[in-house]
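Comment on the following before class.
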Amino acid sequence: MHPDPENPWSYIKGLEPVSFCDWPGRTSLVLFTGTCNLRCPTCHNPDLARQPETLPGISKEALLRRIRSKGSWLDGVVVSGGEPTAVPGLKEIILAISDLDLPVKLDSNGFYPQVVEDLLQKDLVDLFAVDVKGPYFRYPELTGGRADPEGARDNLERVFALAREWPERFVFRCTRVPGLTEEDLDLVRSYLPPSHNLIVQQYRRPPTPVGETPGEAPEQTDEQGASRP
C-alpha cells in the first residue's frame, strides 16, 4: 500500500520490538518509516527508501499498543528509515510516542533542517543521530545523484549550527562505504562543531531491492517487513 501524505502513520513500514544497539546504553523499540529523498547505492534499507508501497504497514493502534505493552522496560523509541524527516506530519507520530512518556531518538540524513529545528525547539526529540555521507563534493555519487555539493553544505551547516546550540542533542555518523578514504573522513570531521566527534561505522553490503534482480530471492526481513540497517 502506498503511504498516504494525509496520514503520517501510513509511512510506518516496520518495527524492531527490541534493540540494544540503536540507542547505545538504552533498550529501545525501533520504528522504520518508508520514503527517502536520497538514493544512496549503499543504502541498507533500499525498499523502505525506494518502494515503501511493497512493504506491509502497521496501524497506529497496533503500533501504540505494541509500545505500551513493552513500555515498562523500554528506555526509548528510535525513529529510523528511510528518512523520517521526509514523512509529512512526522510530528504527529513523535507526539504520540512522547505522550507515552518515552524519549525519542531520530535518525536523519540532515536534509530537512527545518524539521529537525522544529522538533528540537518543541523538545520532542532527545537525540538526533545525523548521517554525514562524506565530503560535500562527493554527495552526488554517494546519494545516487539526488544531492549536489551546495545543497549538502547548506542543509548540513544548518544542522551543525543547531548542534552548536544544543550539543547534547546530536551525534554525527559516517559509514565508511567503499571508496571513502581516510582523507574523506578527516574532511567530514572538519565540518563538525568542535564539541562533537565523528562516529565512523563499518560498511556492510546492502540487500538487493525487491524486484530489481529477477530470479534472486529477497533478503530475509523482520516480522514487520523492514530489513535491519
